């Protein structure tokens, strides 16, 4: 890989890569193009798909097994990472899950607590779990970046995932508070709608996509993960040394428009 670039010499773990449509895949690709050594992770049955997809990166990345709800996996992360690199300069949290049958697509008033609890654990609490599992590998100057979908307002269809994202956004601010004294930055990228596996599973996601096509002043290509990946990599680079607890919108400008 290139030894020049925005992330030259940096070691980065991207958690949450399944398909080559995954935002995590695009982040891993851009990070490699910018000179980073990249590890990727996933969990459960999707792990075998990730191992195939890893070969499509510019350089095949090692694939780690990490279920962010499994305490054994979290405890074993440091050793798994050290099989490949001796530390981490960046961690990307590209993970979310909410049961589409009970929580999304107009089910808000009936969403059962057990499923809501799972969505919050996987999609919000896990930012803290992952950051703490990776903390022994990080030093001052390292960064953690997660992905949100603007949780300051209520959306059609997004329902309990919106609540989980509000939790994620708050979690990122508290993590920024508690890891800042050690020089570790924690930021989020708020992306517009992108056609990934997770997005296609949301009943009614097309309504969100339609809004973007008419309102984003820069326009919005819901099949292009690269702008989001570039923002993730910029936040992991040395060019945001004094930024933490921040949410950068990569949405074609949608969030700034009233109508
Ligand atoms: N696609 C969009 O429109 C969009 C917009 C804004 C934010 N996001 C966010 O981007 C992130 C990545 O999602 P994506 O759209 O690339 O979809 P994706 O389905 O490709 O990625 C989600 C990943 O989360 C992983 N995951 C789920 N549960 C897990 C667990 N318990 N442990 C470890 N990994 C687990 C899945 O295996 C998958 O790899 C998510 O946080 C998502 O909410 C997506």
TrEMBL record:
Pathway info: Lipid metabolism
Keyword Acetylation among record annotations: no
Catalytic activity: a 2,3-saturated acyl-[ACP] + NAD(+) = a (2E)-enoyl-[ACP] + NADH + H(+)
Keywords annotated in UniProt: Fatty acid biosynthesis, Fatty acid metabolism, Lipid biosynthesis, Lipid metabolism, NAD, Oxidoreductase
Origin superkingdom: Bacteria
Residue numbers binding NAD(+): 16, 22-23, 67-68, 95, 165
BP term (GO), one: fatty acid biosynthetic process
Annotated Pfam families: adh_short_C2 (PF13561)
Keyword Cytoplasm part of the UniProt annotation: no
Entry GO MF terms: enoyl-[acyl-carrier-protein] reductase (NADH) activity
The protein's Enzyme Commission number: 1.3.1.9
Cross-referenced SUPFAM superfamilies: NAD(P)-binding Rossmann-fold domains
InterPro entries named among the record's database cross-references: Enoyl-ACP_Rdtase_NADH (IPR014358), NAD(P)-bd_dom_sf (IPR036291), SDR_fam (IPR002347)
PANTHER family membership: ENOYL-[ACYL-CARRIER-PROTEIN] REDUCTASE, ENOYL-[ACYL-CARRIER-PROTEIN] REDUCTASE [NADH], CHLOROPLASTIC
Family the entry assigns: Belongs to the short-chain dehydrogenases/reductases (SDR) family. FabI subfamily.
Record's protein name: Enoyl-[acyl-carrier-protein] reductase [NADH]
